[in-house]
Design a protein that fits this description.
It contains four helices and 13 strands. It has about 210 residues and is an alpha+beta fold. It has a four-stranded antiparallel β-sheet, covered by helices on one side. It has a four-stranded mixed β-sheet with strand order 5-13-6-7. A hairpin with a 2-residue loop joins strand 9 and strand 10. The protein is elongated, with a radius of gyration of 19 Å.
């Protein structure tokens, strides 16, 4: 018999914000989705920002945070379902510099990496590191790979990489230590676009093999 998950821990942050700590990234994603649903339904107190991270969700700009802090741990938060939202499809050339190493770690041929990775369904858990960079969950546990022992000083924009439980796409050239399996021509961040980020927390993502 499994033990029930601990209730969220709600911490005050200044006078108008709350930080909600949960046990896993999956619970943070589910809580983020529930907060958005309640805000859309008008049952959440006015809040300026809802910002998820790996195991936390920040609510900023609350007028009366104490009442929500007392109520939130008693919420029933349903798990995410695959039907939540249409996916963003990213065409990928699976020719990354670390493709052979990832294939070896997975125990498959190099051309199998594209089929396996593109067959998974991903979701943006949270964003960070650089504008437009999303940390995508959905990779099965047995396919998780470590970061490179020596990070690269420059990873090209559009590179698709793996690290631990996450898949990510570099929105611009930057240093990085993720295992690179491919590249996409999709523009992840465009300051002149509304919204500027192609990937936002909660967005479903599917990778598609590009010729």
């Amino acid at each position: 018999m499994t033990s029930p998950e601990p209730a969220p821990r709600v911490l005050p942050v200044g006078r108008h914000a709350l930080l909600v700590e949960v046990a896993t990234t999956e619970r943070a994603q589910a809580l983020h989705a529930e907060l958005l649903r309640r805000r859309a339904a008008g049952t959440l107190p006015p809040v300026r920002e809802i910002v998820p991270a790996a195991r936390t969700v920040l609510l900023d700009g609350l007028d009366e945070p104490r009442a929500l802090a007392a109520d939130l741990p008693r919420w029933t938060v349903p798990p995410l379902t695959a039907a939540d939202g249409d996916p963003v499809v990213l065409p990928v050339h699976y020719d990354g510099a670390d493709l052979a190493e990832v294939a070896t770690l997975w125990g498959v041929a190099e051309d199998e990496v594209a089929r396996i990775h593109s067959g998974c369904e991903f979701r943006v858990a949270f964003c960070g590191f650089a504008p437009g960079f999303g940390y995508l969950t959905g990779l099965p546990e047995h396919l998780r790979v470590p970061r490179r022992a020596t990070p690269r000083t420059a990873v090209p924009a559009g590179s698709v990489g793996l690290a631990g439980p996450y898949t990510g796409v570099y929105p611009r050239s930057s240093p990085g230590g993720w295992q690179l399996i491919g590249r996409t021509d999709a523009v992840l961040w465009d300051a002149g676009r509304e919204p500027a980020a192609l990937l936002a927390p909660g967005t479903r993502v599917r990778f598609e093999v590009s010729a």
